[in-house]
Amino acid sequence: MYVGIDIGGTNLKAGLVDGEGCLLAARRTPLGPFQGGEYFVRRLAELTAQVCRDGGVPPGELEYVGMGVPGAVAGSEIVYTCNIPLKNVPVGRLFSQYLDVPVRLANDADCAAVGEYFCGAGRGTKNFAVVTLGTGVGGGFILNGKLCSGGGMAGEVGHMVVERGGEPCACGRRGCWEAYASATALIRMTRETMERERDSLLWEVSQGGAAVTGRTAFDAALRGDGTARALCRRYAEYVAVGVVNLMNILQPERLALGGGVGEAEDELLLTPVREIAARESYAARCGGAQTEVVRAELGNDAGVIGAALLGRAAE
Ligand SMILES: [Zn+2]
Predict the structure, then answer these.
(1) Residue 269 C-alpha to ligand 1 middle, in angstroms?
(2) Tens of pLDDT along 79-102?
């Protein structure tokens, strides 16, 4: 029995998970105001104890607690997180003051990859990749059945440059994939497009520009707006640039698109990405085995389930 915790920018989610990846009990709690690393780890321990109680399993029977971290990890330490001010927090050591259970940490996109690999879109493969299109762009790879996490900071696919000298990125470079393919980037592109096209339905869909979200472009496109359709096409092309790059480097059997934007309608995202990949990937051009591009299946549960199953995919 395992507990998986998904540490998000707004919520902490925890689940009690069995060896098959079934979620037996789950809880979600708001992150709340940040009160330091030690307090933060105490809350993780309390949350673990709560889901154990919910599921009727004593914490002492857990093999480990897996945690998905929105940032960089090293061993059982959080090195850095982007949206929560956690820096060099020895989670394993602090956690052991409350519960005598080992801790496993991984990047949140790595956890999503592990979850999808065992219980979702990656089942039945040996080489599998997940790309999450959310606030940022994350990636996780399973190669020969093992999570490829490098020193804890591998798989930062969002920071591969797709436009040299392009849009600035929070990482300090310019033209990162994340600056074109994240929900944040899509919202920026939607606003830019709206300013140029005053007659577009994008205005109506976003209540006069007051509520532009990662859905605005898709919703206006589904209502037949030409400007929005062109914007969605441009966005899908940027997603495809990075997807084809990853295919050429890793040649996974399957690559799943997840995250909030990954839930867009097939005709507006998955289908154009598949068409571009079928035309441009090296394997496609040379008649090699082609990567199948699919939608991620576990949605919001991928992180919790994957964190819980980290041990099964350990290098
Ligand atoms: Zn970057």
Answers:
(1) 22
(2) 998 778 899 999 999 999 999 999
